[in-house]
Amino acid sequence: MLNKGLYNAMITSVGHYVPDRVINNKFFEEYLDTSDEWIRTRTGIQERRRLDRDLPTSYMAVKAIENLLHNRGIGIEEIDLIIVGTVTPDMIYPSTACIIQEKMGATNAWGFDLMAACSGFIFSLTTAIQFIQSGSHKKVIVVGADKMSAITNMEDRNTCLLFGDAAGAVLLEPTEDKSYGIRDAIMHIDGKGGKYLHQLGGGSLHPASHETVDKRMHFVYQDGKTVFKEAVKGMADVSYQIMKDNKLKPEDISYLVPHQANLRIITACADRMGISMDKVMVNIHKYGNTTSATIPTCISEYWHNGKIKKGDNLILSSFGAGYTWGSILLKWAY
Ligand code: COA
After folding, report:
1. Does any ligand 1 atom lie closer than 6 A to the CB of residue 233?
2. From ligand 1's centre to the CA of 118, what distance in Å?
3. Is 306 helix (H, G, I), strand (E, B) or coil?
4. Which residues partner with 231 through β-bridges?
5. Residue 1: pLDDT above 60?
6. d(Cα 30, Cα 295) in Å, to the nearest integer?
7. Which one of 71, 102, 124, 131 is separated from 222 by 20 to 30 angstroms, measured CA to CA?
8. Is 157 touching ligand 1 by the criterion CB < 6 Å?
């Protein structure tokens, strides 16, 4: 799908942030009809993080970007563009990108938010690649950041225990060496999935009102069983497709970096690709589903732990509301 430009886009730095406050499964046992055992075995989640009530998504995004800049040894003024994948912007507008730009003094950057739910990061990354490949931009930051605690109904056992708050970021720069960097991307949407996973209130169809609040329309709604089946198929198919299109065998893949919605979906995807779980990046047990942040926090954590090396082939895959789904293939460049 990628229309190769003058350059390849390569990731040259990573950063992430998770809030300090840990919510374990016992927390939910105390007031909901659920159990630590059910949550662990059905989802793989042991705990998740919660950001303070009065802090917004941009707070976490700024921390992740600070970490990224420190790791690259550059200042924010070098950044040309900031793309923020999120479904929990600080507010509808101005965009979270504008808020981050102002908070960090990114005086040479423009930017925007991109909403693709759990695929927010890979859709943002695929968008960012175009600016690097064309040669028009030299340093682009892609952030995946979500404060899911702001839109989860803590009385709904179908959703509240699944989600957490986090932010992850990557820096993209050009390379003339076409064997490195982002090599392929396959993206899909299917609007038929909208009725199974959505947040109905607050948009132009159902503006905020007493009724939307009373009907809990500002929270995530999910028909978990239906989405589960579609996610297993969608994520596994597209991950397998990108391997096949690029003539890669399971042994050529260093890591699958899957969206972290459910460990059973991750395992099914790895099985379909013929990849063993030791080659799959996983942090769902610690953070739950952090929506746009799952993939960049995984990459950043593994990088900080010295587990990614130059030449590693990574496949990034996700599935989320919309439906939205896709895969990106890259060869790690530093
Ligand atoms: N605690 C205890 N029991 C629960 C429960 C909970 N929190 N939620 C549901 N159950 C019960 C159900 O009532 C049902 O009981 P029954 O068999 O007596 O009817 C049983 O557990 C199975 O319910 P089901 O809804 O089929 O669970 P599941 O195995 O599908 O798991 C999810 C639920 C949400 C974890 C799972 O469907 C999922 O991960 N969905 C996809 C998420 C996703 O990928 N989203 C896209 C990106 S956000």
Report:
1. no
2. 18
3. coil
4. none
5. no
6. 31
7. 124
8. yes
Question: Is residue 231 in contact with ligand 1, taking CB distance under 6 Å?
Answer: yes
Q: Report which protein residue has its CA nearest ligand 1's atom 35.
A: 43
Torsion angle of alpha carbons 155, 213, 291, 185, nearest 10°? 140
Global pTM? 0.96
Q: Which residues contact 185 (CB under 8 A, 6 or more apart)?
A: 1, 2, 122, 125, 126, 129, 326, 327, 328, 329
The catalytic residue positions are: 118, 259, 289
pLDDT of residue 3: 58
Is 311:282 a contact under the CB 8 Å cutoff? Answer: no
pLDDT in tens, 166-214: 999 999 999 999 899 999 999 999 999 999 999 999 999 999 999 999 9
* pLDDT over threshold 90, residue 4: no
Q: Does position 2 have pLDDT exceeding 70, yes or no?
A: no
Percentage of the chain exceeding pLDDT 90 = 98
Query: What are the contacts of 204-210 at 24+ separation with CB within 8 A?
Result: none
**Residue identifier of the C-alpha nearest atom 8 of ligand 1:** 158
Which amino acid, residue 3? Answer: N
Cβ proximity of 330 and 316 under 8 Å? yes
Distance of CA 104 to the CA centre of its chain: 22
Cβ contact 140:287 at 8 Å: no
Q: In a 3-state reduction of DSSP, which class is residue 234?
A: helix
Which residue's CA is the nearest one to ligand 1's atom 24? Answer: 225
CA 324 – ligand 1 centroid, Å: 21
Question: Facing residues of 10 across strands?
Answer: 173
Query: 55-69, pLDDT tens digit by residue?
Result: 999 999 999 999 999
pLDDT tens digits for 100-109? Answer: 999 999 999 9
